[in-house]
Amino acid sequence: MSTQPPADTLRVMPRTPQPPAVRRRSAAPAVLVALGIALLLLALAAAASGAVSIPLARLPALLFGTGATAAAANGDEALWRNVLFEVRLPRVAFAIVVGAGLAISGAAMQALFRNPLAEPGLIGVSLGGALGAVAAIVAGAPGLAVIAPAAFIGSLLATALAYQFGSRRQGVANVLLAGIAINAICASAIGVFTWQASDAQLRNLTFWNMGSLAGANWTLLAWITPWVALLSFALLRDWRAMNALLLGEREAQHLGFALRALRRRLIVLVALLVGPLVAVTGTIGFVGLVIPHLIRLTLGADHRWLLPASLLAGAIGLTLADWVARIAVMPAELPIGIVTSLVGGPFLLWLLMRRQA
Questions:
Q1: Distant-in-sequence, close-in-space partners of 122: CB < 8 Å, separation ≥ 6
Q2: What's the CATH superfamily of 94-214+226-328?
Q3: Is the distance from CB of 227 to CB of 276 less than 8 angstroms?
Q4: Cα(336)–Cα(342) distance, integer angstroms
Q5: How many CB atoms lie within 10 A of CB 297?
Q6: What's residue 283's pLDDT?
């Protein structure tokens, strides 16, 4: 007599483990579509707003070139076109790319540590990058061409040290503790460099640590966008493993996942993704913490939907923050790190009170 299960049974067997915290939402595809539409509309509004206001009605003509003939006869058209393509669009696109990368990295870290308060900075990426940038500025670096590679190297070294010390024993908590120690060391070293800096260097250090997207240009986008897209795709492919981690490390291992290799892969991917972003933007906090948690409250913890939704919502969140930073105190500009902290700080307090209730 055959022991093969009935065909109906085979059809209903789940392809991936689903922990109790995972709630499948039939509305998830619709939410992704809504986030995509909201991102497009926000990008257009942000591109039209600023010290030089561009009428929304003129955006299609400017974007698709139908207003090129009018530009010669209309000085406003020429100005709008130049501002749109040389300043606004690169900056909006840069905000989308950076926000998406930070948010999906935060979602991956929260899955790895099984903690909604986790974010990429816990493993030393942010402060390591800050230390590299501070060291380059105090050493007399002429500009972003030297500061950005130094920050990237600092991010990778700090993350490598955190993983090296934290992975000596089983359990992801050791990596977290090592990351906290590395962050403390980096913060102390930054204090030493700050003490040695001149007045002009202190000003540069202050503004770099507050974060900014003002360095956006098409050349920068040409190399950072494929990098973020490739690493984000690699994280998206690990959604099944992240779902399994929600069950606990032992359960995930029993389900066939190699935890040591999985932890190493996720940490390396996050470090490679966030490191370049920190290098070119400075420190932008709370995006990797707030955005994934908001999406989790909306869609549940199924990373099949959580990861792409976090990516889109992160792009929306940072584009909105940059828009506010540009228009809040025109013609001056707020550092974007101030805007994200003004939102992220109160949100974190609310989250802590909610968890204690």
A1: 109, 113, 176, 179, 180, 183
A2: ABC transporter involved in vitamin B12 uptake, BtuC (1.10.3470.10)
A3: yes
A4: 10
A5: 12
A6: 87
Per-position DSSP letters for 54-91, written without gaps between them: --GGGHHHHHHTTTHHHHTT-HHHHHHHHHIIIIIHHH
Distance CA 283, CA 341 (A): 11
pTM over 0.90: no
Q: Which two tokens stand for residue 75?
A: 């000085």
The predicted-structure confidence for 197-253, as pLDDT tens digits, reads as follows 888 888 888 888 888 898 899 999 999 999 999 999 999 999 999 999 888 878 888
- Find, among 91, 88, 97, 75, the residue nearest to 49 by Cα: 88
Domain borders along the chain are 94-214+226-328
Angstrom CA distances, 284 to 99, 125, 131, 143, 233, stand at 9, 12, 15, 19, 22
Q: How far apart (Å, rounded) are the C-alpha atoms in residues 332 and 327?
A: 8
Q: What is the pLDDT of residues 55-101, one digit of tens each?
A: 888 888 888 875 444 444 466 788 888 999 999 999 999 999 999 99
Helix (H, G, I), strand (E, B) or coil at 285: coil
Whole-angstrom Cα distance, residue 44 to residue 157?
38
Four-residue CA torsion sign, 110, 313, 220, 282: negative
Lookup: tokens for 197: 């800096």
What is the amino acid identity at position 238?
Answer: D
Token pair of 267, please? 């940490």
